[in-house]
């Protein structure tokens, strides 16, 4: 009898131990006399399907074998990997399109880069992650992971930046000091982007000089403390000061009053 191998497109690919097609990847291996093993090297997706091993007996005997070619995940398209900028209150969609055999599942994670730094699963599994009514607390790096149990899994990261107008807060709205001494006024500004932050007196911006020293301290990625040191206080310094912040989305300001403190004088007769 003779043994024939037929591929999924019903083409005879071997007769006995001879290859019948011009594909060098294919051979018939016979470790034992009764064995007629079809060997396919460098398997591709196109090789998948039902193969038939036939023996020309009467009647013909046929054995069908299904070859399933598994393919590791591949992310073929995804949201732009740089900054995805949205305004607070808007909605954003993050997308990860993945292929593979079997079809990969896509899982979403938040990396919590500004807080715990612990990877946290978010949303439902799927190629699309929607964040509705986004807030500044959603700023982070998000990661999609495609996995179909055929290693290696694939992942992509996307950074989401939420823009919002400035907010200005004061530790206190009034501060007192004696003549000839110095004091420090502070305001805390939160904004995205941070933009411009200044101290003003009588409508004029104050800058570092012999009288004033303006410093900025970073609190976190979208919050700063703006300090104003006033040296050698005199009567003209007792006034209202304004901390003002502006960016592309708006302007905000808050007022602080610097008033005089006078030492008590006791007369003894």
TrEMBL record:
<dbReference type="GO" id="GO:0005886">
    <property type="term" value="C:plasma membrane"/>
</dbReference>
<feature type="domain" description="Ig-like">
    <location>
        <begin position="166"/>
        <end position="259"/>
    </location>
</feature>
<dbReference type="InterPro" id="IPR007110">
    <property type="entry name" value="Ig-like_dom"/>
</dbReference>
<keyword id="KW-0677">Repeat</keyword>
<protein>
    <recommendedName>
        <fullName>Ig-like domain-containing protein</fullName>
    </recommendedName>
</protein>
<keyword id="KW-0732">Signal</keyword>
<keyword id="KW-0325">Glycoprotein</keyword>
<dbReference type="InterPro" id="IPR036179">
    <property type="entry name" value="Ig-like_dom_sf"/>
</dbReference>
<keyword id="KW-1015">Disulfide bond</keyword>
<dbReference type="GO" id="GO:0043005">
    <property type="term" value="C:neuron projection"/>
</dbReference>
<dbReference type="Pfam" id="PF00047">
    <property type="entry name" value="ig"/>
</dbReference>
<keyword id="KW-0472">Membrane</keyword>
<dbReference type="Pfam" id="PF13927">
    <property type="entry name" value="Ig_3"/>
</dbReference>
<feature type="domain" description="Ig-like">
    <location>
        <begin position="73"/>
        <end position="161"/>
    </location>
</feature>
<dbReference type="InterPro" id="IPR051170">
    <property type="entry name" value="Neural/epithelial_adhesion"/>
</dbReference>
<dbReference type="Pfam" id="PF07679">
    <property type="entry name" value="I-set"/>
</dbReference>
<dbReference type="InterPro" id="IPR003599">
    <property type="entry name" value="Ig_sub"/>
</dbReference>
<keyword id="KW-0393">Immunoglobulin domain</keyword>
<dbReference type="InterPro" id="IPR013151">
    <property type="entry name" value="Immunoglobulin_dom"/>
</dbReference>
<dbReference type="InterPro" id="IPR013783">
    <property type="entry name" value="Ig-like_fold"/>
</dbReference>
<feature type="domain" description="Ig-like">
    <location>
        <begin position="1"/>
        <end position="66"/>
    </location>
</feature>
<dbReference type="InterPro" id="IPR013098">
    <property type="entry name" value="Ig_I-set"/>
</dbReference>
<keyword id="KW-1003">Cell membrane</keyword>
<dbReference type="InterPro" id="IPR003598">
    <property type="entry name" value="Ig_sub2"/>
</dbReference>
